[in-house]
Every structure is written in structure tokens, then in C-alpha cells.
Amino acid sequence: MAKKESKEKKSEASSSSDYGAKDIFVLEGLEPVRKRPGMYIGSTGPDGLHHLIWEIVDNSIDEAMAGHAKNIEIVLLPKNQVRVSDDGRGIPVDIHKQTKKSALETIMTTLHAGGKFGGEAYKVSGGLHGVGASVVNALSVYMRAEVCKEGSLYAQEYERGKPKADVKKVGKCGANGTTILFEPDPQIFSEIEFNEKRVLDKLRQQAYLTRGVRISFHDQRKSDAANEHKYAFYFEGGIKSFVKHLNRDITVIHDTVFYAEKTVNDIQIEIALQYADDLQAREMGFANNIHTPEGGMHITGFRTALTRVLNDYSRKNSYLKQDEENLIGEDVREGLTVVVSVKLRETQFEGQTKSKLGNPEARTAVESCFAELFSSYLEENPADARAIAGKVILASKARKAAKAAKDTILRKGILEGMTLPGKLADCQSKSAEESEIFIVEGDSAGGSAKGARDRRTQAILPLRGKILNVERARLDKMLASKEIKSLVIALGAAIAEEFSLEKIRYHKIVIMTDADVDGAHIRTLLLTLFYRYYRPVVEAGYLYIAQPPLYKISRGREFRYAYSDAQKEIILKEMQEKREAQNVKHKTQEEDMDTESKGEQSGESGIGETYKGFNIQRYKGLGEMNPDQLWETTMDPAQRLLLRVSIRDAAEADHIFDILMGDEVAPRKSFIQTHAKAVKNLDI
Predict the structure, then answer these.
(1) Residue 584 — φ and ψ, nearest 5°?
(2) Into which EC class is this enzyme placed (predicted)?
(3) Does the model's pTM come out above 0.90?
(4) Is residue 323, in this structure, part of any structural domain at all?
(5) Number of domains forming the structure of the chain
(6) Is position 50 within any domain?
(7) Angle at CA 622, nearest 5°, toward 562 and 671?
(8) Is 441 annotated for ligand binding?
(9) Helical H segments across 602-643, by residue range
(10) Is the Cβ–Cβ distance between 229 and 222 less than 8 Å?
(11) Which positions are annotated as active-site residues?
(12) 447 and 508 inside one domain
């Protein structure tokens, strides 16, 4: 069977090797892109900026999936330029029948022009809409395309989507391939700064999904980058290796990674999974190598089959008794790490950013394929099957216990007429849009905050001690915690499956803890709670971290606040220069210096003789501030600094929470050792 399938793939590749202008289909013009870039790349912020790279890389990945490329190189160059090269067939350069121009120019300057709308050039592709190269061109102040075909090198340059000259033959070359160099347009992107780690993570992901293709990366933006910041990814194991990578810092309950590969009705399906001793699920779906963070039909098909197969197996082997209810999706996905990758000829994504797959046929194909192969796996691997069955049965029992505890808490809150906890100092406003709640550490800080607040719009909820680490606790144990229960009731939006963002009582939820190790730990525990159980709150932009000052710097009647060590040095320098200017003005510099040297001295060692006469107060607790100070530095909307908490990479966030808050000590120790030197303001 395997040999027959490989012959069919080889036949398909050879039939599409005659890739020319006839394969390029033009649908419409280019102008709308610059007017509404968000429609094509999602935004003009960091996500949209990096999306430019993904669009060009996707085209190279398409060549690899079609069997025509083995090497892809991405280089970040100085002056915000990016170069992407591959050893594929090379974009056609012959004259296009419809446009009467070179096919290269047609592809690069015409929206909806490409080899993915018809013909046999690509069986599957990630660039469904065929707008990738032209959109990047339209949003770049400069672009250059080079194509090597049959020993000749062709090139064309563009400025904001318009060609500067015709496609020209500029020399000779070796192997076929395409190189695209582009520079994002500052008229479109207010901030142009590519993130090396973000690019690396994406490229690593693509290498896992494109087995046998080498993807290399080099960041040349730094002066020392000649021999550094170079990486290469090549994975023979494909998505099996991907699952092992995702589970690298947690304990797995079975060593074997289940893997299935099959083609159903022209849909190529790959699924790899493994269960871990964890409470969270990690599901990653891909369609034609495009990550679908919102899932879609392929994930729905997988989930349906997984629940059915594990119910059937559990009943057949008496893990579930006849009078017990079936397992549900929540049970069978606890601790699951899975990668589902499908490749289709005609993909139907929701939106240009391709966050969800809409093909109904993908659901049917994945469901039938996975049900058949996973059932066989459980029968053939009894030890793994027992471990998986035990895990999901335990999850089912814990879910029922958690539901009973949650229902009791929510019901008591209503029946006892105490939907709000007694320790909450609520605000007067009933409008969630203008209301904010400060979650503060301890009664002392709570007292200062209650005295400082604007009673009309600001609520204060003091928490005593460190809350439960929810990364290690199930919902029933979590809701037994008095502090967490108070927070759940105060927010008013319930929790777990009953959670409703529309019912949230505050649109600003501010974590306000002390600037010491204990404060940082409490903040991390609260962030874990919100990430695991209130993620829609984070995604809506409602969660913030207060930034109280670290220092109060004073001299005489003048004082200023510093929020970091760097700012402290700047303020000291500015105040010193001001003092010296005043001394020169009044021609009493020596007298002033003598007088001040007898006055207050810096409370911090290492300041030096330059800053004699300054008093530097280091705040370690919010309770050290009186209400007026806390208001003007941390709570006054006109002056305060708040950090909004956001999730840029959910998979990476999930991994970090596993490391920092999970049961495994070794990964946490390694993380601390790796990042210890970067920590500032460390109190020991």
C-alpha cells in the first residue's frame, strides 16, 4: 500500500512539473491592499508585520509540499529587510497570456494572481487566496524578486507594489529557485521590529510539519551576527517529533507517541498524540501547514472520534460500568497533546488570516481515519491503553466532583444573599465599562488602597497570603480555597463552563502586589488562575498589572518617583543638574554643597558622592505608602502606569506556565538558571 501511494504522489508531481504562465489565473487588481491592509494581514501591528514573512515562507513551503523544494532559507537583514529563498521550480517568467506581461510581474503586482486557482501546479497549498506575494509587495517600500530558471537569473524590483522596470535577465545561475527580498513600508507599519524568537518558533513549527525539508534561519541585524544567530531545522520524525517537543517538560503517561497517516478522499491526514500527567490539553490543528488556532472541521472530527473510541474501549474493558454515564470531551482531552495536520486541494478558511478551517469534508475524513487507527492502536498496545483509560476515567470523576463543588458555591452565594464577599470594598458604579477592581496583597495594602481609591469607579479586593496554585489543582480543590472563592464571586461571571464574559462586573481587573519576591509569586499565581480559568478576560484586554514605583527620590521639598533602576538614575541626574544650575545662578554653590552634605544622605549604598543630599526611599510594600502616595503613583488614571496582559503565543504561554507552576522540578531549575542573569531588582 505504501509503495502504491508513493508512486501516485510521484506521478502527481511529474504531471505538475510543466509550471508556466498558463497556470497563473488573474482575478482582480491590487490597490485595495494599501487602503485596508488589515483585511489581508489582520493588523498593522506586530502580528501583521510578521504575517508578511509567513506569506512569503508559505509560498516556499507550498513548493516543498509539492515535492519541488528541499531547502528554504530566511534571513533578517539590517534596515528591516527580510530575504526568503528556496530551491523550488522558480516563479514562471514567461509572458502571461491574459496580462501580456511576465508571469513574475503578474504574480507580484496583481491581487489574486497565482498558481493556486486552477491547473495542476499545486495539489495542495497554504496560500489559498493567492494574494501572499502581491500583498507583501503592496505593503513594502521596496521589494526585489529573483528567479533562477534553467541556468538564467531573472530579476525585478518594486516600490510599494509597483514595478520599477520590466523583468530582466540579469545573469546566469545554478539550480532553480526563487529569492524574495522585501522591506516593510513605514507608512503602513508604525513600528517595524521583527522578533527573532517569534520567527524561529514559526519556522521550527513548519519544519515539523514538512518532514524532510531543511529550513535555515540567520539574523544578521546585530553587529556580532556573522557566526551567531544561525539556526537550522530538519525533522525526519515530523509531527511525532513535534508532540515530543511539546511534551518536553512534563511527565507523559505512555512512552509511545500514537501516529496515524492516511489519505481519505484526496485529503492527506496526519495525527500524532500522547497523554501527559497534566490537567491541560494542548491541541494544535494545521491545514496545508497553516496553523488554525481556532480549530475548525478537522479538530471537530478528531474530537468526536476520540470521545467515541475511548467510550467504546472503556465500556468494552469494564473501565466504565453499565450504570455510569459516558465520558465527555472535557474528560478525554485532559492531559492530551495532539497535532492534527490535513492537506486539502481546496481549503476554506475563515478570513485571510486562516484561523479556522471550514471544510466539512475534513471533519468526515479525520473522524473516520482516526477512529479506525486509534481503535487498533489501543487493542495492539494494552499497556498504553490502560494508562490512557485510567487517565480519562480519573478526569471524569474529578469533573463531577468539581461540578458539585462549583454548583454549591454559586448556589450559596445567591441563597445567602452574599453574592459579593464581605472583604470586597465595591465601587458605586454599576457600569462594567467604567468600573475597575484592584486585587491587592494583604490587609495592610488593602487598607491603603481603600483609603486611596475613587469610590465611584474603583473596587478593592484584598487577598490574604498566597492563593492556591491552580496549575496543580483540580476545580473542586480550587473552589475550596476561600481567597479564590471570594475572587470568583467578586468578578460575577461564574467559572468553567458557566463562565460568561458579558456578566463580568469590571472591565479593568488590576493585579497590585508588592515589588518583592513574594509579590511576584502572588502575581504569578493570579496570572496562572486567569490564564487557565479566565482566558476570555485576558483575550478581551481586561487584565492589568499595576506598576507602583520602586523609589521615592527627594531633596528638600522636591520629590519624584522612579519605577525602575534606570529611571532612578535618570531622575537623580536631572535633579542634580537642576541643583547645580540653581547654585550657579545664585553663585552660592560651595555654601549650598556644604549645607546639603550635612543634610539627608542617600538611603541606598553605592550611589556615590555625586548624589549627596538626596534621600532615596526603596518601596518594598504597598502598605509603606500612605493613601495619597498610592493614589498619585499607582491608582490615579491620569498619572498611573498599567501593564495590559495579553497572549501573543498561547502555546508558548502554556509551556511557560507548565515550567513555572507545574510539578516537574528539573525544567523549572533549568529555566531559572538560564534566565537568572536577566533578572533585575531581585530581593533575596
Answers:
(1) -65, -40
(2) isomerase
(3) no
(4) yes
(5) 4
(6) yes
(7) 75
(8) yes
(9) 627-630
(10) yes
(11) 441, 514, 516, 518
(12) yes
Domain final residue, candidates 202, 233, 264: 233
The CATH number of residue 118's host domain is: 3.30.565.10
Q: Is residue 102 part of a domain?
A: yes
All three cell numbers of 83, joined, read 530575504
**Residues 204 and 60 placed together within one structural domain of the fold:** yes
Domain of 569? 551-618
- For residues 424 and 491, membership in a common domain is answered with yes
Find the helix or strand (DSSP H, E) in which 83 lies.
Answer: strand 81-86
Both 585 and 541 in a single domain? Answer: no
Which grid coordinates are listed for 647?
497572549
Amino acid at 578: K
In 3D space, the residue among 248, 269, 309 whose CA is nearest the CA of residue 664 turns out to be 248
Amino acid at 658: D
The amino acid that residue 259 corresponds to is Y
Q: Which of 199, 233, 267 is the last residue of a domain?
A: 233
Query: What is the distance between the alpha carbons of residues 305 and 377, in angstroms, rounded to a whole number?
Result: 14
User: Could you tell me where the DSSP H helices lie in 185-238?
Assistant: 196-209
Q: Mean pLDDT in each 10-residue stretch from start to end of the chain (684 residues)?
A: 43 55 62 87 92 93 90 95 96 88 91 57 50 90 96 96 94 94 96 94 94 94 70 94 92 95 95 94 92 93 98 95 92 97 88 79 96 97 96 92 74 51 90 96 86 96 88 81 89 86 95 85 90 92 92 87 87 85 65 42 42 80 86 92 83 66 67 60 47
Between the CA atoms of 313, 316, 322 and 325, what dihedral angle is there, to the nearest 10 degrees?
10
Does residue 593 lie within any of the structural domains? yes
Residues 596, 659 within the same domain: no
**Which amino acid makes up residue 220?**
Q
